[in-house]
Amino acid sequence: MAITISTVLVFGIILFLLIRRGGMNPWHALVAVLFGFFLAGSSVAPSINDGATGVAGFLASLNI
Question: Which superkingdom heads the taxonomic lineage of this protein's source (predicted)?
Answer without folding.
Answer: Bacteria
